[in-house]
Structure of Phosphonate ABC transporter ATP-binding protein:
Amino acid sequence: MLTIESLSKSYNSGDKALTDVNITLPKGQVVALIGPSGAGKSTLIRCVNRLVEPTQGKIFLADTPITQLNSGQLRAARRRMGMIFQDYALIDRLSVMENVLSGYLGYSGFWRSFLRRYPQDVITEAFRLLERVGLESFIDKRADELSGGQRQRVGIARALLQNPQILLVDEPTASLDPKTSRQIMRLIKELCAERQLSAIINIHDVSLAQQFADRIIGLKSGQVVFDGQPDALDTDMLTLIYGEEDWNPQTDNDDEKEAPVHSSKPMMMSSKAALV
Ligand SMILES: Nc1ncnc2c1ncn2[C@@H]1O[C@H](COP(=O)(O)OP(=O)(O)OP(=O)(O)O)[C@@H](O)[C@H]1O
């Protein structure tokens, strides 16, 4: 579904964010991107839809050569890539339904967007998606009246309304508590399975990555240093990825106990967490 070949990115500042990254992502696979701060995770996700222009390399979404598209073609290709953001990127003063419908804007012309007129089948699909993410009773609420987890569900429904082939997910749980984080990751995983959607998820929390991803890619200083099954990610590999960082396997068995929401330390999965 997605092929990344020899991708490198150097910013004008001289920062080399990615070096020779090669990834092939089959249809329906959920990949977690892990690595310390500055490893290049966000840059990699943003190169896929060319919010960041790659310096070198090729990216294909199915047969579409993303890196060779002109701006009109790129706009069309971006409709096939749903984005989910850490800060949800909702419009606060609009309702939940209007926010979800905004996922369709890439398909509609200027005047239709301006007047916010949507075809009936799109509205019906938006209802269906809101039901699927558990927000059917929040349809008319303003976005700023929702909790963080509910806001992220709106973001997920909006991304799915585009009917994408791939989800690009940037730290979806960074602002959420541990329990809500698991619910959101589980929802993303289930939706990908239901729709045979591929996803790349940039995530700091190693335990969540191990629990919910089919595959983990570890980045360090812009290079892929691990690419494999979640259970192959052992202590030595985590030390390699996170270097000198003082990380500890999480041994706490109380799954619902609050952990620091925005910890920079990676956490390994506890034995109980594996069952959630
Ligand atoms: N717009 C930019 N201009 C210049 N350098 C940048 C820019 N964005 C990122 N970088 C640099 O590129 C490197 C990779 O950054 P990136 O944000 O992709 O890492 P990350 O793994 O997503 O980090 P974090 O987990 O902290 O978000 C870093 O050295 C960063 O300083």
Remarks:
- The first strand starts at residue 2 and ends at 10.
- The pocket of adenosine-5'-triphosphate is lined by residues 11, 13, 15, 17, 35, 37-43 (CB under 6 Å).
